[in-house]
């Protein structure tokens, strides 16, 4: 019997490494953006399990399930949205390189699972949060029945991320105007019409514990980050600190 990915405790420390453009967007809009799985950088998001089952031969003799499985996974990729954080307890040198691009300009925002959840205006949206599991081997087609496992499984190549994933989704069924009846049935949403990004207002003052500045910034760039932060999000000014990494690119 397979196990679903665990939910981390709410006191779990999490980090989000942001390039300069994403940091500026965060403090100017004061929103948290969730990205449609279908446009995520990892092209095997949600479809990893089916990919591995096919390659391992675990679906031999079960080819009849492939069309429906592919259709189902495609609908999950387009209707689900994720915000990805790292669950490492401390700053991570390799993640500065992974997420900030060639310029290495950006920040790492530090908070906890509980503060993230509690300081977002979810309105009527449901949400979930899980520790991503890293596997390359899937042998049981029954695992395809678990949305949580599909959504929170990644290849071992990504295990250094230690990802904590927050997720939400858009319903593919809408209630019609007026009373529901045989002549006025629910409306099926065109999955290709769904937005690529959805935003939630956030109380960043209460959510964010610290803002760490990239170790690869020059002094004038560090001052620029501090000045811009004071102007756009003064409540974060006292939470800024420099990276503990001391090296040159």
Could you characterize the architecture of this molecule?
The protein has 249 residues and is of the alpha+beta class. The chain has helices at residues 20-29, 48-56, 66-79, 93-99, 113-118, 147-151, 204-207, 219-232; strands at 13-19, 31-36, 80-86, 106-112, 128-131, 133-134, 153-154, 163-169, 173-174, 187-188, 197-201, 210-213, 240-242. The protein has a 5-stranded antiparallel beta sheet. Helix 8 (219-232) links the parallel strand 12 and strand 13 (240-242). The protein is globular.
Break the fold down into its secondary structure elements and pairings.
Layout: E1 13-19, H1 20-29, E2 31-36, H2 48-56, H3 66-79, E3 80-86, H4 93-99, E4 106-112, H5 113-118, E5 128-131, E6 133-134, H6 147-151, E7 153-154, E8 163-169, E9 173-174, E10 187-188, E11 197-201, H7 204-207, E12 210-213, H8 219-232, E13 240-242
Parallel strand pairs: 6-7, 12-13
Antiparallel strand pairs: 1-4, 2-3, 2-11, 3-8, 4-12, 5-8, 9-10
Which terms summarize this structure?
249 residues, alpha+beta, 4-stranded mixed sheet, 28% helix, 23% strand, globular
